[in-house]
Amino acid sequence: MIKVLVIDDEEKTRGLIKLLINKELGINMICEATNGEEGIAVIKQKYPDIVITDIKMPIVDGLELTQKALAYNPDLIIIMISAYEEFEYAQRAIKLGVSDYLLKPIRKNELNEALKKAIMRVKERRLKYGISEKESASRPVIQQVLEYVREHLSDQDLSLSTVAAHFFLNSSYLSRLFKREVGEPFIEYLTKARIERAIWYLENTDKKAYEIAELVGVVDATYFSKCFKKNRGMSIHDYKKVIKNYKDNLQ
Fold this sequence. Notes:
It is a single chain. By secondary structure, this protein is of the alpha/beta class. The chain folds into two domains: 2-129, Response regulator (Rossmann fold); 141-250, Homeodomain-like (Arc Repressor Mutant, subunit A, Orthogonal Bundle). The chain is built from twelve helices and five strands. The protein has helices at 11-20, 36-46, 62-72, 87-96, 108-129, 141-151, 160-166, 171-182, 186-204, 209-215, 221-232, 236-250; strands at 2-7, 27-33, 50-54, 77-82, 100-103. The chain has a five-stranded parallel β-sheet, with helices on both faces. α10 (209-215) packs across α11. The longest helix has 22 residues, at 108-129. The relative contact order is 0.08.
């Protein structure tokens, strides 16, 4: 599935761009935004593959949009459209990482040629990283990964490689994507998620430490106790005491 985002403050221009796009290119979704600020929000929500944007817009212009968008998703392909022929604008856009720079009035053949090249890059990248077409297009893959991890915390074999295999992703690609989007390595997130789940069991059940370790997918209770202490600053035994004292004071 190929998703394209069209950003321009003029509704007529957005409509024209959509009309000029060749249906045979296989673009499945075309989103719209009226300025760069709104465009950034749509990028984070819809995760487009390609962005077609005007360079001159209110609030956030095309150059600033490019900088912010590529900082969020370096794999994003951006096609810049401008009424300016000045070399300076094109030079700045290319330096920021814009893939193509098209001048107004927009010509159908030029737009579709730029899109064709962009789509080829998207497909080449997917092939390189092992991204399958089975991947759901309704939500960013990282959101699906986080939900999957939460739902399978009790699985002892839950790991980066098993999650990557489930989503038809290359492990190295998922590792980079996860750290970029979540802000920490997969293993750190998994450990924290398991400890949070363990805390729920400690606060709401009378289960022993080794039983809780098994419930959150860890076979080695001693190892899990060490992870818990490192993360929470106290042992599981001490944490139980804190909970007991708190409950006693409430009575």
